[in-house]
Amino acid sequence: MGKAKDAETLGVHTRKEIVAEIIRRGDALGQKKGTYAAAIFEWWWEQGCPPVTKPDELMEASKPPKKNGPVKKIAAI
Question: Where is this region: Disordered (predicted)?
Fold first, then answer.
C-alpha cells in the first residue's frame, strides 16, 4: 500500500514467531513485512471485518451488519 490520503501507518507489537512468518511469506512474494502485514488487514476488511475474539464476536453480534466500502487491491499479491 503506497502513501495516500486514505492510508495511515499502524504500529503493531506481536510475537516473534508471527513476525517471522510474515517476513517469510513476504520475502517469498518479494514484499516487505509491512506490505504483507497490510495485506492481512486488507483481507480481514474484505471478509467484512469478522470478529477475532469471543468478546469482539459478542460486541459485533449486537450491532447491525456493516457494509465495507470498495477495497483497493494491493499490487503483487
Answer: 55-77
